[in-house]
Write a structure and sequence with these properties.
Order of helices and strands: HHHHHHH
Structural class: mainly alpha
Largest sheet: none
Strand content: under 5%
Shape: globular
Number of domains: 1
Length: about 120
């Protein structure tokens, strides 16, 4: 008896994942280096900022939807949230995931892309 299930095409999974290589290239093109002290200062400022109750609820929902995803997918989605809804929203969402490594990676990417420069003025 032949298996009638259609198998995914080769390379299907690679196409389903966000293109992090492209994201990294874009970040490197716009990279503005911050000192460790400036990065820590910006990080503390952003993490300490408050968002309204509606945004908190949305961040919790966003975090819940990302909970089962791979680290790279989570990071890509958090960067997308930063572009669409703002840096603070993305950081609050990452905090809800209770993953210090992911939060650290997000901070690094946001710093590399120049998003934290505005908080240091």
């Amino acid at each position: 008896m032949a298996d009638t299930k259609e198998k995914p095409k080769e390379g299907f999974i690679e196409h389903a994942k966000p293109d992090l290589a492209q994201e990294n290239r874009e970040i490197k093109e716009h990279k503005e280096t911050l000192s460790r002290e400036d990065l820590q200062k910006a990080r503390e400022l952003v993490e300490g900022m408050q968002i309204d109750d509606d945004a908190k609820a949305q961040a919790a929902v966003s975090a819940q939807s990302l909970a089962g995803s791979e680290e790279q997918v989570k990071l890509a989605q958090l960067l997308k949230l930063a572009k669409e809804k703002g840096v603070i929203f993305a950081v609050k969402t990452a905090q809800k995931l209770n993953d210090p490594y992911l939060l650290d990676m997000l901070h690094d990417k946001l710093a590399e892309s120049g998003h934290y420069k505005e908080f240091l003025k």
